[in-house]
Amino acid sequence: MAPVITADQVKTLRDKTGAGMMECKAALSEANGNLDEAVTILRKRGVAQAAKRSGRTTGEGLVATRLAGDNATGVIAEINCESDFVARTEDFQKLVTDVISALLALAPGTDPNSVIAAGSPIAHQVTATITKTGENITISRVGRLEAGDGVLGTYIHLGGKIGVLLRLTGVPAGKGQSDEVATLLKELAMHIAAAAPQYATRDQIPADVIEAEKAVYRAQVENSGKPANVIDKIVEGKLGSFYGQSVLPEQPTVRDPKVTVKQMLDTASKSLGGTLAVPAFLRFKVGESQ
Hints:
Elements: H1 7-17, H2 21-30, H3 35-45, H4 47-52, E1 60-67, E2 73-81, H5 84-87, H6 90-105, H7 121-133, E3 138-146, E4 151-157, E5 162-169, H8 179-195, H9 207-221, H10 228-246, H11 261-272, E6 277-285
Antiparallel strand pairs: 1-2, 2-3, 4-5, 5-6
Helix pairs in contact: 1-2, 1-3, 2-3, 6-7, 9-10
């Protein structure tokens, strides 16, 4: 009869080795509840050694993106390691590919973070890759967008240091695969990579963020002696500058600072005969989430 493994035993082994909960429970079961034997089992499997590396800084790595064959789904992931050398190894590259493939295989509406949850096949693969490479490896973030009634675009910059995934809506039927739309998607993605907007629309900015910005601007001019209505106008003017820096359609384009992203979309809308917009994008930069 198999021994009953308690939560306290699992916690003790986990504290001792740093290994994952499922690995600890399996090792204790195999060791019939013997803590020292379970530690040995984990060490033989390389799990304990991998766990000891978990505290190391992972400021290098790669961002990867991919579109499904039918372009209905796009995914993006940031996988980190300690050195650029390991990021270029076959084992690390395989992990990146497998993470992207697992994300694409998810059913629509599934939380993409389920792919990297503790106990998942990818989580076990991370542990195995840590053991093989000798470096700490983490999957910092993953994302997924569905095309829906729009089209998707991706872009990788600096050999995988920055990645962008975006959704463009308003493209007229039959023109989603046109060269003009492909060029526009690339231009938008390259702009997002370079300009790092925080929001796709003003509506996506949390109310507390806007209030915090207003408070800063008001504090800057509250002792100026100006009337309250003038101060309000100054605050609104500064808030407009904040939008111009943070909201994608209000940013000056990288290619031509005299033209905003919205103006670029408006021009393309007239050419294509639609009303184009970018309601969502994901921009990952290696090390930015550390």
